[in-house]
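hiii, so i know i said id send this last week but things got crazy w the move. better late than never?? heres the sequnce for the chain we talked about at the cafe, plus the structure i predicted for it. fair warning i was half asleep when i ran it
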Amino acid sequence: MKNLAGVEASDEILEELGKAHISAVHHPHLVKNSEVITNITGALGPFTFVRNWYYWVACGPVPASVADILYEVEEGKAIRVGGHAAGPDRTYYGETFIHKSRKVIYVDSRRGDWPDYLKETMTSLEESSITVGTKEEAREAAKYTYVGLYHIDTQEGLNTFADTLRDHHQEVDEVASFLCPWYRAGTGW
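okay and structure toks below
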């Protein structure tokens, strides 16, 4: 993808979204946290797409099983979990674990053995979440495991990402509906 940082690029953005069959959303103001000068983002189901430097940022809940599919496809090298430059799979980087109580499950191998300057913050975090010692414990305790952020480096990767989400929209909708009870499953696909 072309480097669009600092450039007014609405035409390019509309073209890239159109090729991937992602709806364009026109905002009355410029998009914040974008390196590109535009008032356009993309929307597909519960996902938001923002164009940055030479890649797209996709935010939304990709279930673990769908994340695994994205990692395995040829274009998957251009679809990076959490934006990680090395492109690892979701089990190494980028997973979020959600308990049936809707609390986030955090992995902290120190389990309470924090320095004094972190104790208040971590105690507050523990009250609003569940803390376990390993990723294996988190996976066992989780109702859902998902990846919430991707960087996508090519048009082919963007097309594959969107097509894969549409192919698995029921799984995506299930997680999105659990995370946000007001989400209307089945809309925006």
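btw Strands lie at 23-26, 40-44, 47-51, 56-63, 79-81, 95-98, 104-107, 130-132, 144-152. thought thatd interest u
miss u guys!!
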